[in-house]
Amino acid sequence: MAALGGAEPAAVVAAPGSQASLALAVETPPALQRGRGGRRSRRSVLAALSPAVSVVFPGAVSRESCCRFACELLKHVLHQRHQLPLPYEQLVYFCRRATQDGDVIKKPTSVGLASKKCQQVLVELEGVLQHLEVMFSLTLVPRVLILLGGNAVSPKEFYELNLEGICVGSAEKSLKTTPCVRKLFHSLFIADVFSELKALPITGTVVMLQGHRNCGAEWFRPKLNYKVPTRGRKLTINLSCDGDLDISASAPQIMTSAWEDYIWFQAPVTLKGFHE
C-alpha cells in the first residue's frame, strides 16, 4: 500500500534475531569534505547541521498514535534542550505536590515564585498538547515543527516530525501506541542526537503543523505563506510504515499532489522555558 505522502521508504536495519520488532534506520550525515583552501562545502555543512532519524513501523498506525508521537517529542525536546528542569511527567508531579504542600506550610518567596512559574509553564504546555489532540482529530497531519529560539521564520534550531510516510489505520487494526512510542524514543537514544549539543539558554518554543486548509481549526492560526526555515540546526525524524498492511484497515490514501491543500498552522502561544 502506498504511504500517505508517497514518501520513499527509509532504509531498514533489522535488529538481530528480532523479526517482529520495529525497524530502525538512522541516517547520518556524510563526512565533511574539504575543498580548496580547506573550506567545507556549503552542502556538507548543511548535511552536518541536518541529521535525520528514520523509524519504520511494520503495520498501520492510528491517528491517536501519530498525535502521541508529536506530543511526546515536544515534551522530550523541551527537557533535552534545557527548557524544562525535569521531564514533563516528573515536573507535573512535583509541581502539584508543591501546590498541595503550600496550603499547609508557608514557603519562602523565592520558592513560591518558582512554583508559580512552573505552574504557568505547565498550563501553557498542557494547552498546546490538548489542542494538538484536537488538530489530529480534525485532519491528517503530515508534518510537525518544533522551533526553538529566534522566531518561526529564523529559529536557532528546530525539529521536524515527518509523518508523510505513515499509513493511518483504525485503532482496532493498527499497532499499539505504547510500543510504537517506545521504539521511537529508543531510536532517538541510539542515534544520540542530543548529547553533543551545547546547552541552550532559556528561550521560546513555537509549535507548527500542517493540516488541511478546510479542517476547521480554530485555535491554531493558519500561515498560508510559511516556508520551512533553511537556517539553524535541524533534526528530521522520518516515520513510515511497512510490512503486511491491511488495506481495509487503512484510511484513504492521499496522492502527493493532494498535499497542496495542506497549509501550515501555528500555535498562538510561545512556550517559555524556565530553570529551577
Automatic annotation (TrEMBL):
Pfam families: p31comet. One of its GO terms (cellular component) is nucleus. One of its GO terms (biological process) is regulation of exit from mitosis. Gene3D superfamilies: 3.30.900.20. InterPro entries: MAD1/Cdc20-bound-Mad2-bd, MAD2L1BP_domain_sf. This is MAD2L1-binding protein.
